[in-house]
Specification:
Blueprint: H1 3-9, H2 11-15, E1 25-27, E2 44-48, E3 63-65, H3 68-82, E4 86-91, E5 96-100, E6 108-113, E7 120-126, H4 142-148, H5 150-155, H6 161-172, H7 178-188, H8 193-201, H9 203-213, E8 218-224, E9 233-240, H10 242-251, E10 255-262, E11 270-277, E12 283-291, H11 296-311, E13 318-322, H12 326-335, E14 339-343, H13 345-353
The structure holds zinc ion.
Residues 84, 100, 102, 105, 107, 129, 131 line the site of zinc ion.
Region (Disordered): 26-49
Domain Transposase MuDR plant: 57-122
Organism: Acer yangbiense
């Protein structure tokens, strides 16, 4: 991914490429071999690369690109469009050589600068594949999606990730993970890390609104202030709406499943959750907690608060199900009297297989 950033910086270059520069360049080094050795001069005409009307990319020997990055950006689009993976053999300012990553496939491209040392020209292209189209593509990153679908996202800021995902599948035949789409959308909307950071400042206000609008809900924010006057940092957050509590007490069996999962994204952490099973055997969310990690302390904080919120009113004998993590067991034993423990068979099986 090391060339992602530099590619990014150059995106504006590629986008603002002046297609009206439709002159013909004569390049005397056009007949070099892949090592960059010039063959006896044989003049070859080059022409600036242009996308076709429908945005389809057709690559040909002799096409010219502003610079190496412009070539890389176009090639990446081409690779996704054609549905194959790229194996880069040479990738520097003097030459770019790549082949189809599928072993034995004969597709191959080689480009290098012309006399001005900046403009890149396709010198060799073996366009035929002897492989199958792929439906996953490493080139189709969030950066790629953001660039390719920038206009669409900007026109419709509320565009649903689901819709975008379908569009990509329709046009390119690619099944991208939802997370890639989400990141691409945020990239276009220019939601920087700072916006994420700022959202932590709003947790107080959020908690206040939740409690005001949903009386009986439990919202807890646990912060850490290293010394007086220092800014406090986020530690944990607990949320359970009154409706979840009532739904659990009056519509679910006295059973609570607890588990933790790691959060992806800029600010990592762990999401602890408590779920129940309703009368239709559907999963019913009871409470969540975002915390620093799965530890004795964090589980204890979560279960203690869950008990204060629900357990103190719900006198049923509760059965907990967990993945047998020590922190969970201790926390339940300590904070939830009149409860018993079951272990999740799927977790047990997974642990046995390790
Ligand atoms: Zn191939």
């Amino acid at each position: 991914m090391s060339d992602n950033n530099s590619e990014d910086e150059q995106l504006s270059n590629a986008a603002s490429y002046d297609y009206s520069r439709d002159f013909i360049v004569e390049d005397s080094s056009a007949s070099e071999d892949e090592q960059g050795n010039n063959q006896p001069s044989r003049r070859q005409r080059g022409m600036p690369f242009k996308e076709t009307e429908g945005g389809r990319i057709i690559l040909e020997v002799g096409q010219l690109f502003n610079n190496l990055n412009h070539f890389r950006v176009v090639l990446r689009d081409y690779v996704v469009q054609e549905g194959f993976e790229l194996k880069r053999i040479k990738n520097d300012k003097d030459r770019y050589t790549a082949e189809c990553a599928y072993e034995g496939c004969s597709w191959r491209i080689h480009a290098s600068p012309i006399e001005d040392k900046t403009t890149f020209m396709i010198k060799i292209l073996q366009p035929r594949h002897s492989c199958q189209k792929v439906h996953k593509n490493h080139e189709a990153t969030a950066v790629w999606v953001a660039r390719r679908f920038k206009a669409l996202i900007e026109e419709n800021l509320d565009i649903e990730a689901k819709f975008l995902r379908r569009e990509i599948h329709r046009i390119y035949g690619l099944q991208l993970p939802p997370y890639t789409i989400y990141r691409a959308k945020h990239r276009v909307l220019n939601l920087t890390d700072n916006d994420h950071k700022k959202s932590y400042d709003q947790l107080h206000a959020y908690g206040y609104i939740v409690r005001r609008r949903n009386p009986g809900s439990m919202v807890l924010l646990h912060t850490l202030t290293p010394h007086i006057g220092a800014p406090s940092t986020f530690q944990r957050f607990f949320l359970s709406f009154q409706a979840q509590k009532e739904g659990f007490m009056f519509g679910c069996r006295p059973f609570i499943g607890v588990d933790g999962c790691h959060l992806k994204g800029k600010f990592p952490g762990v999401l602890l959750s408590a779920i129940a099973i309703d009368a239709n055997n559907g999963v019913f969310p009871v409470a969540i907690c975002i915390c620093e990690g799965e530890s004795k302390d964090s589980w204890s904080w979560f279960i203690d608060n869950l008990y204060r919120h629900i357990g103190m009113e719900d006198n049923r004998r509760m059965t907990f199900m967990s993945d047998k993590q020590k922190g969970v067991l201790l926390a339940i034993e300590k904070h939830w009297p009149r409860s018993s423990n079951r272990f999740c068979a799927r977790h047990l099986a997974a642990n046995m297989q390790r």
